[in-house]
Design a protein that fits this description.
The protein has one domain (3-170). Helix content is 60%, strand content 2%. The chain is built from 8 helices and 2 strands, in the order ααββαααααα. It has a two-stranded antiparallel ribbon with strand order 1-2. Helix 1 (3-14) packs across helix 4 (91-108), helix 2 (25-41) packs antiparallel against helix 3 and helix 5 crosses helix 7 (145-152). 32% of the residues are buried.
C-alpha cells in the first residue's frame, strides 16, 4: 500500500496528521501499527499485511514489518510530512475508517495515556487470537494474570469491548 494512502488513512482514523518527529516516533509506531492491526481485523484495508505477535522485544505490540520499514524509512527522511489533498479514499472505505477510528478514540482518549491503552488493547487481541491457541505451557506461564483474565473474559473481536476490558484490567496504570 502506498505510504501516502496510509497517511490519509491515519488522518481519517485519528483525526490528525502523523507526527514523524524523533521524540514522537514510538507513539507514532504504536498508533500506526495498532490502526493497521485493528482495521485488518475488521476487514478494512491492510489485509495483505502480515502481523507478528511481538515486533519489538518489550513493546508487546503486534507489528507489520512492512509497515514498520516504511515508518523507519520515513522517519529517516525527516519530519517533512505534507498532506497530499490529491489522495482520496473510496467513500465507503473512508466512512468505515472514520467510524472505527472514532469509536477507538472515544474510548482511549479518556485515559491518562491513550497510546498505552491502544497498545494494550491490540496486544490483548493478538495474544488471545494467535498466541494462546498455539502456545506451549511455558509460554502461557509468561502471560500475566491480568492479561489472562482479560483474554479469558473476551470471546469476540469487538474492539469496543476489548477497550473496556483493558480499562478494567490496566486502568490503574493507564
Amino acid at each position: 500500500m502506498n505510504e501516502k494512502i496510509i497517511y490519509k488513512v491515519y488522518q481519517e482514523f485519528y483525526g490528525k496528521s502523523p507526527d514523524f518527529s524523533e521524540e514522537n516516533f514510538e507513539n507514532l509506531t504504536i498508533e500506526m501499527q495498532a490502526m493497521a492491526y485493528i482495521l485488518s481485523q475488521k476487514g478494512v484495508l491492510f489485509s495483505s499485511y502480515t502481523f507478528v505477535a511481538e515486533g519489538y522485544v518489550g513493546l508487546k505490540l503486534p507489528m507489520s514489518m512492512e509497515l514498520q520499514d516504511m515508518l523507519v524509512t520515513r522517519r529517516n527522511k525527516g519530519n517533512e510530512y505534507s498532506n497530499d489533498e490529491s489522495i482520496k479514499l473510496q467513500e465507503s472505505v473512508r466512512k468505515k475508517v472514520a467510524l472505527i477510528g472514532k469509536i477507538v478514540r472515544e474510548k482511549i482518549e479518556v485515559t491518562k495515556n491513550p497510546v498505552e491503552m491502544l497498545r494494550q488493547i491490540v496486544y490483548i487481541n493478538i495474544v488471545k487470537n494467535r498466541v494462546l491457541p498455539n502456545a506451549k505451557e511455558d509460554e502461557i506461564a509468561n502471560i500475566s494474570a491480568c492479561e489472562k483474565c482479560a483474554i479469558a473474559g473476551e470471546e469476540s473481536l469487538d474492539f469496543a469491548l476489548q477497550i473496556e476490558l483493558a480499562k478494567t484490567n490496566y486502568g490503574k496504570n493507564i
